Amino acid sequence: MNRGKFIVVEGLEGAGKSTAIAQISAYLQSQGIEFITTREPGGTPLAEQMRAIVKSETDEPLTTEAELLLMYAARAQLVENVIKPALEKGVWVIGDRHDLSSLAYQGGGRQLPETLLMPIRNAVLQGFEPDLTLLMDIDPKIGLQRAANRGELDRIERMELAFFERTRAVYLTHAKINPSIKIIDAGLSLEQVQGQISSVLTSWFNDVQ
Ligand SMILES: Nc1ncnc2c1ncn2[C@@H]1O[C@H](COP(=O)(O)OP(=O)(O)OP(=O)(O)O)[C@@H](O)[C@H]1O
Ligand SMILES: [Mg+2]
Q: Which stretches are annotated as coiled coil (predicted)?
């Protein structure tokens, strides 16, 4: 049996990740491919507890280093207990965020040095990476507006605009050097965004079949 493929959707808050995942899910269904979806941080019972810590506002401030370690603790649980077992069974995985989020948010937004980030990342993931990443690239002003329309913003979503500008810049830097990351212009209309996703997906799919 062929190993499943791991497709990840990345981008700032309100960029349209969940909307894109619905489209990708429909596409895989139409191709008769068995898949699961995951979200990060979270996606396992223990990892969801770590997500709750990262998202909530408490009297005791969460340090930037503790936040980073929680992200990787949650990712270790998800990758080992859910993603890898699925892929080994031939089941595909669609991830709502994955490691690129940590590189962008912790490295860009929080400005943690690579000398801290990379050894942790390499130790936890040991070369494990998505087969395809769709980066929903958006001006954070537009993304945050879309997210705000949906409801109250969490601890991270309430960061200042410059935080998201730095995060976006790191996302784009990785997309330029890693050919498995495809940039989608997520600021366009829903119809135009769906058109871009559809063409990326079909051409990639034809290549991997
Ligand atoms: N291209 C688009 N144009 C306008 N609105 C859009 C577009 N794509 C998605 N939306 C709307 O914007 C909001 C945010 O989209 P969505 O929930 O897919 O983003 P997300 O990246 O998953 O957000 P979050 O990071 O908060 O999970 C939703 O209300 C969605 O219907
Ligand atoms: Mg979402």
A: none
pLDDT of 50-96, one tens digit each?
A: 999 999 988 999 999 999 999 999 999 999 999 999 999 999 999 99
Is 147 close to ligand 1, i.e. is its CB under 6 Å away?
yes
Q: Three-state SS across the chain?
A: CCCCCEEEEEECCCCCHHHHHHHHHHHHHHCCCCEEEEECCCCCHHHHHHHHHHHCCCCCCCCHHHHHHHHHHHHHHHHHHHHHHHHHCCCEEEEECCHHHHHHHHHHHCCCCHHHHHHHHHHHHCCCCCCEEEEEECCHHHHHHHHHHHCCCCCCCCCCHHHHHHHHHHHHHHHHHCCCEEEEECCCCHHHHHHHHHHHHHHHHHHHC
Residue 10 main-chain phi, psi, to 5 deg: -120, 165
Domain range 6-208, CATH architecture: 3-Layer(aba) Sandwich (3.40)
**pLDDT of amino acid 32:** 97
Q: How many residues does the chain have?
A: 209
Closest listed ligand to the CA of 191: 1
Q: Nearest residue CA, atom 23 of ligand 1?
A: 14
Answer whether 10 contacts ligand 1 (Cβ < 6 A). Answer: no
- Is residue 15 annotated as involved in ligand binding? yes
Domain boundaries, the chain: 6-208
